[in-house]
Design goal:
alpha+beta; Ubiquitin-like (UB roll); 16-stranded antiparallel beta sheet; five-stranded mixed beta sheet; 14 helices; 31 strands; about 20% helix; globular; D15-like; Bac_surfAg_D15; transmembrane; signal; Bacterial surface antigen (D15) domain-containing protein
């Protein structure tokens, strides 16, 4: 007890000394007469308002005061300290410049504070929040070359709304405003608040934009406050149009002609006019239904614009259809720039023409990628990809992609050369910007739905073991409800795995291991798959989430119709191959919390289960779950963890075998911080495992049971990320903290950590090199 107390005292003493050194160091750099500004405090003297109102007012006032003092950490100002100790650089680069102006922070002095200006801010802000008679004073408290400013405000009673009037007359615009009063933000009994008044003006403007008032603006509305008609600190509001509101702003406009330039170029416009003749006779030859598509070279089918445009001739203008149309044109993926103009064509009838000026992207592109890689399974290798894209394949904004690739991976270490891998293949995809189906499908989303057709082939050779021919094909749809919600339905998703050249060596190794044998069995997998994705990570929020749920149904209807039952020796075949029948569900949930602009916390949970039935007793190897590696639990090499408490050290070291499972649980947490420009650091913890649904005599401890929590693996580590915008190179160094295949009661590995032991480092430190973030 005395030792602990002694240690605690030493810690407090050391902390105090460090704080004192840094604090004194910051003030000793000040010149004669200078004082370090440590911040401001606002005191509110008022006994008539509630504690919550006082708290809100104080927070709002302090948030508006300028300047802000130097940033602090645990009561210290380390950034200011680095600024002070760094020498003045001779150039705008180098270590001193980086330390002083990138890491460091210039001192904020009392002389930088305009106290009269802040006093005016306090009084104005208070009045904007309904405290009409607010008065403020200030005082400066200085000690040891440090100073803070104390502002005292006497806000008086807060004025409340007592009646809201909207201008009434026979004009169209005011009649429309009258129809919007039932949802007004200005409520009787609420405090007067200028921010709410501004929101009310924007609300009216937004609703009028939906009713044809294209040229209206929030500034056209004035809200007059009258405090003389009521007593007891009440105010009456009068909402009306300004007297100088332009006539154009008060008129409802409808669409006359809709004109599309799908091959627009800035050179087509001279002196503000289009070089292409726009008279009625010239336009007639470009007519398609109610729109005009100015495409003399017929590069695009006009019907794609008929589906994308939400304005038709005679429609009343509204902002929703305006934005919807622009977003759908962008999501076609074939235009680099999308511009829209409305030009008055009949001022008496209040009509304008809608012009869509579309600049095409490069129709075809060819990209060659050469990648070198090393992964945590001791594999090194390279990959070569050649990708060709055509963005207007049938002149209907169809995207056709074709790719061929070749790759090889070799296991580092001569004794394991039998595990070298060679892969080659290709795939094609046709993406059609509409739903191709025997039924009508209408989408009002701002994103164009797509029908995707894919075909692929991969040749995979594991030297001295086997060769696999993988054929894939799918037909399905992708559509978005909005920017946050996406659906991906593959009506049919087919995989055919055909083995070849299985060596006697592999057959001998797999004779006693059914799981290894299933890898080289012929596999036919077909059925629908569906995934739903929700994300708001693109929003500037402190907390954001990402969720993806996937449902994979293989052979379900076929198995039901044929009466397939593998357990009762009634396994059915198609073309001599038993088809797989299973249900697989996987959930991926991520939560992100932003501490500052340069630091955040990222977490992820993965939970999945695959259940075989009917025509299958086991899940196909390619559809099972795997654990370990650079995007999973990084303290364990790729696909070597699990299942359950199975000990992979019992496997013949000369045998290559990925560990797979039917159940997966995984949890990851990672703190991320920016160190300097492109250099980021991370500290992470990973936990999880995979399991089987059935006993496997060759892998004892692999079955999922009520004891699964005792079989969770835990790893932790640190990482560096080089973020070059177009490429993120990630290096993560991890070590195991809990190993599920150790003896029960001895699975935590803290007492085994020994960084000074080279053998321990070799066996436990795992370096993951990867592209992109793990989640």
């Amino acid at each position: 007890m005395n030792n602990k107390f002694h240690t605690y005292c030493k810690y407090l003493l050391a902390s105090g000394m460090v704080s004192s050194v840094i604090s004194c160091s910051n003030t000793r750099f000040l010149k004669e007469g200078q004082m370090l500004y440590t911040g401001a405090e606002v005191k509110i003297e008022n006994d008539t308002i509630s504690k919550q109102e006082k708290k809100d007012l104080q927070a709002g006032l302090e948030g508006n005061l300028r300047p802000k003092p130097n940033s602090t950490f645990l009561g210290l100002r380390p950034k200011l300290y680095f600024y002070n100790i760094a020498k003045e650089p001779k150039k705008d680069k180098g270590f001193n410049y980086w330390l002083k102006y990138k890491v460091g922070e210039k001192p904020v002095l009392l002389g930088d504070v305009d106290r009269e200006f802040n006093k005016d801010i306090i009084e104005n802000y208070s009045e904007n929040k309904g405290y009409f008679n607010a008065k403020a004073t200030y005082d400066t408290v200085a000690k040891n070359k440090k100073a803070k400013v104390i502002y005292t405000v006497r806000p008086g009673a807060r004025y409340l709304i007592d009646g809201v009037k909207f201008q009434k007359d026979s004009t169209v615009v005011n009649q429309e405003i009258q129809n919007l009063t039932d949802r007004t933000l200005l409520k009787n009994g609420n405090p007067f608040d200028l921010d709410v008044i501004k929101s009310e003006r924007e609300r009216i403007d937004n609703r009028l934009k939906e009713r044809g008032f294209y040229y209206f603006h929030p500034d056209n509305i004035i809200v007059q406050a009258d405090s003389t008609v009521s007593k007891n600190h009440k105010v009456e509001l009068n909402v009306k149009l300004k007297d100088n509101t332009p006539d154009l702003s008060t008129q409802q406009f409808s669409i006359d002609k809709v004109i599309v330039f799908p091959t627009y170029n800035i050179q087509d416009v001279k002196d503000g006019k289009y070089s292409i003749p726009m008279d009625k006779d010239s336009l007639s030859k470009y007519a398609f239904d109610d729109i005009y598509v100015i495409d003399p070279q017929h590069k695009f089918k006009p019907k794609i614009f008929d589906r994308a445009l939400y304005f038709k001739k005679g429609d009343l203008y509204n902002r929703s259809n305006h934005n919807l149309t622009l977003n759908r044109l962008i999501s076609l993926g074939v235009f680099k720039f999308v511009k829209n103009e409305f030009i008055v064509s009949d001022s008496l009838s209040h009509k304008f023409d809608a012009y869509y000026l579309l600049t095409p992207r490069q129709v075809q592109s060819l990209r060659l990628e050469a990648l070198g890689r090393t992964n945590s399974a001791n594999y090194a290798g390279s990959e070569l990809n050649l990708n060709w894209t055509h963005r207007n394949f049938f002149k209907g904004a169809e995207q056709f992609k074709a790719a061929i690739f070749g790759a090889f991976d070799f296991q580092m270490g001569g004794a394991q050369d039998a595990n070298n891998i060679f892969r080659a293949g290709g795939n094609v995809q046709l993406s059609i910007p509409r739903i191709v189906a025997p039924f009508r499908f209408h989408s009002s989303s701002e994103f164009v739905p797509r029908t995707n057709i894919t075909l692929g082939y991969e040749f995979q050779n594991r030297t001295k073991y086997y060769t696999l021919n993988n054929f894939t094909g799918s037909f399905g749809y992708i559509w978005k409800e909005n920017a946050r919600k996406e659906h991906d339905l593959k009506v049919i998703d087919i995989t055919l795995v055909s083995p070849a050249n299985v060596t006697e060596e592999y057959r001998a190794k797999s004779a006693k291991n059914p799981a290894m044998q299933r890898i080289v069995d012929k596999q036919l997998i077909f059925g629908p798959t569906y995934s739903y994705t929700y994300t708001n990570t693109m929003l500037p929020k402190t907390n954001t989430i990402y969720y993806k749920g996937t449902l994979d149904l293989a052979g379900n209807i076929t198995g039901l119709v044929t009466g397939a039952n593998a357990k009762k020796d009634k396994q059915k075949e198609i073309f001599g191959i038993p088809f797989s029948q299973y249900v697989k569900i996987e959930n991926d949930f991520r939560f992100y919390h932003k501490f500052t602009e340069k630091s955040s916390l990222a977490t992820r949970f993965i939970g999945g289960i695959a259940y075989p039935y009917g025509n299958s007793e086991f899940i196909p190897f390619s559809k099972q779950f795997f654990s370990g590696g650079s995007n999973s639990i990084r303290a364990f090499r790729a696909r070597t963890l699990g299942p359950g408490s199975f000990d992979p050290r019992t496997i013949d070291p000369g045998t290559y075998f990925d560990q797979s499972g039917d159940v997966k649980l995984e949890l990851n947490a990672e703190y991320r911080a920016n160190l300097y420009k492109f250099l980021n650091a991370a500290v992470f913890v990973d936990a999880g495992n995979i399991w089987l649904l059935r006993d496997d005599s060759t892998r004892p401890g692999a079955k999922f049971s009520k004891d699964f929590l005792n079989e969770i693996a835990v790893g932790a580590g640190v990482g560096l990320r080089l973020d070059f915008s177009i490429l993120i190179l990630r290096l993560d160094l991890a070590m195991p903290l809990r190993v599920p295949y150790y003896e029960k009661g001895d699975r935590w590995a803290f007492d085994r950590i020994n960084f000074g032991d080279s053998n321990w480092r070799k066996d436990n430190l795992v370096l993951n090199i990867a592209i992109g973030y793990p989640f």
